[in-house]
Amino acid sequence: VQLQASGGGLVQAGDSLRLSCQASGRTFSSYTMAWFRQPSGKEREFVAGISQGGRMTGYADSVKGRITISRDNTKNAVYLQMNSLKPEDTAVYYCAAAPLYGSRLVKDYNHWGQGTLVTVSS
To answer: Of 87, 92, 85, 98, which Cα lies nearest the Cα of 115?
Structure first.
């Protein structure tokens, strides 16, 4: 599956932003999907994940209550709704796909989008 993320931009603290990830291929619904982010000079970290059917989700503690992951298997798309953004949310955001649900490790995701930059100013 090929992934393309979009929706990043420059926003102010407290603003909202919605990221989208469009997937190609017929097997999208068989993949767990996740968003990771990588602040400048830091390692890539898990943000949120969603199971193949969308019933199960998981979030990093740092974003719980502010960020929601969702997917639409009819559109081959996964989304990340980000509210109450903080300067520390500034990073390149990547969508990723894995065959099994539950992992928060980069190494377990074998398909990656190109990343979209989110910059939150204070």
So the answer is: 92
Please list the ranges in the chain whose pLDDT falls under 70: none
Q: Which two tokens stand for residue 63?
A: 């974003």
Percent above pLDDT 70 for the chain: 100
Contacts of 28 (CB under 8 A, 6+ apart): 1, 73, 76, 97
Q: What is the DSSP string of 50-93?
A: E-TTSS-EEE-TTTTTTEEEEEETTTTEEEEEE-S--GGG-EEE
Q: What is the largest CA-CA distance in the chain?
A: 42
SS3 46: strand
Cβ-based burial of 110 (10 A; exposed 0-12, middle 13-18, buried ≥19): exposed
The rounded distance, in Å, linking the Cα atoms of 117 and 115 is 7
Query: Rounded to an integer, what distance in angstroms lies between the CA atom of residue 80 and that of residue 16?
Result: 10
- Spatial distance between the Cα atoms of 96 and 50, rounded to a whole number of angstroms: 11
d(CA 30, CA 32): 7
Paired residues of 2 in beta bridges: 24
